Structure formats: structure tokens, C-alpha cells
Amino acid sequence: MNAPVSPSVRLHLQSQGQGRPLLSLHSSSGSHAQWRALAELLTRRGGHQLLMPDLHGHGRSPAWPAQAADSLRIDALAALACLDGVEEPVDLVGHSYGGAVALQLALLQPQRVRSLLLYEPVAFGLLRRYEPQGEAWQQIRRIAAMVADKPREEAARLFTDYWSGGSGWLQLNTAQQATIAERIATVSRHFNALFAADWGRPELQRLRMPVLLVGGVLTREPARRVSELLAAWLPDARQHWLTRAGHLGPLTHASQVAELIADFVQREPAAA
User: Fold this and answer.
1) Where is the AB hydrolase-1 domain (predicted)?
2) Confidence of residue 153 (pLDDT cuts 50, 70, 90)
3) What are the phi and psi torsion angles at 229 (to 5°)?
């Protein structure tokens, strides 16, 4: 197991609102901007301070630290550093890679987390450890290998089309395509980190806080299967599936997902 690495450079952090802290972690190739609908909704409702970092190699944050391992701890520890000065437990939200980072953060310091809302947290190491012969694991291994091996723009297109469930690449403008291509090397590091996230059931059962696992019915099988395993193993977890959404639900159904998050964090009591 890799030893914790203290972040030497701060992540770029956007903060909005006042009240109980909510830390939101974006998906691979994205940035804090994906939480715009959530920020607007919580601003209208009040009661929360939304903390939105850009993870390493994304948005306005520094690149992945030189010589650092491909580990979820890199972004989890940097996200924890965003909570310096925050004394009360936070509501923690994450999408895809950001959801897996949120789980890693909670495992490192469970006392800092009041609740977890995770949209398809892709901790693929669970598939590698527990279902190595399953089609879900074999599928995501192939996708990760192709993303790592292909030229940058081709890899960015493959990655985008896979998670969008079709031709998502063609729906992006030139600037958006260039941004994803620029971040694709970090995305490959994300895959490595996710494959190493092979927590055991005893570790996950230490997370006693309320957890809502949200997903899209139209998602890819590897993401669905990880969510199912987590729902079975986390002590206080329940699932919610959006019937017309896929893996990119926080982007394609931003208002609906924002409502789910706001309702959950405003109604859910803290863990005992």
C-alpha cells in the first residue's frame, strides 16, 4: 500500500454560499464547473457552503505531482487540504472518478464526513479483486488499455464516446475536445488509481455515514457493477437510478442530479 503523500501544491478551489460545508469532486476530464447547477440551486435554497476543487491536472489546478504514484490518495489528500479550517464534518459529493476519490477520502478520515452522495463511483479495483473473470472487469480493462495506447486525440474521443454511450465527442465544440485531449494523460493515471482501489469489505463497512449511490439506467456495465457491490457492502447505503440518464448524468441531467443532492444533504441526519 502506498504511504500517504502530503500535497505540496494546493488545488484550485471555488467556494460559494454559507452554511454547512459540502465538498464536491468532479469526474475525469472535467472540472469544478460541472457543479454549476448544484451551486445555483444551493445558493437559492441557502444553508450550505459549496466547496468545489479542480483535481490535479484539471481546470486551474497543478499537474499530477512529479514522481507520485497513481493512487486515489493523491487527490484525496489534496481534497482534504481544501478543508483546512473547516471544523465540522462535511457532506461529500463525487461523480465517477471523483466519487472514488470521495470514498478514499472517507476511508482516510471518516470522522470528517457527515454523508456521501456518489454518482457512479468507479472504484474498478473492486471488480479486479472480486470478479476478475467477469465481463465488467474485462471490458473496463480493454477501454483503459486503449486510452493509454492510442494517440491523444483518438484516446480522448474513445474515452468520451464510451462514457457518453455513443457519439458524445461529436457533440463537443473544438475547444471542449481540445481540453479533454489535453487532460487525457491524467485520465490514464486515473484508470491506474481506480484499478488499485481494491478495498475489502471490512474496510468499507467502517463507513457508517449515510450513503446515497446514484446512477443512470443507461450506464456502462462496469460502473453499474461497482455501484451494486458498494450498495451491498456499505452499512448505511441506498441506491437511486435515473431512468433516462447514463454515466454522465451530472452533466446531461444536471438539474435533476442537483435536486437529488440538495434534497439528500438537507434532509439526511448525520451518522450516529
Assistant:
1) 21-253
2) very high
3) -65, -45
What domains lie within the chain, and their CATH numbers?
13-267 (3.40.50.1820)
Residue 128: which of 31, 65, 195 has the closest Cα?
Answer: 195
Q: What's residue 267's pLDDT? A: 82
Q: Give the rounded percent of residues in the chain with a pLDDT score beyond 90.
A: 92
Q: Report the alpha-carbon distance of residue 38 to residue 132 in Å, rounded.
A: 36
Strand 211-216 with 113-119, pairing? parallel
Cell 459529493 appears where? 93
* CA distance linking residue 62 with residue 23, whole number of Å: 19
Instruction: Give the β-pairing of 237-242 and 13-16.
Output: unpaired
Tell whether the torsion through CA atoms of 107, 111, 113 and 116 is positive or negative.
Answer: positive
Residue carrying C-alpha cell 454523508? 115
- Average pLDDT for the chain: 94
Averaged over 173-180, what is the pLDDT? 98
pLDDT class of 3 with cuts at 50, 70, 90: very low
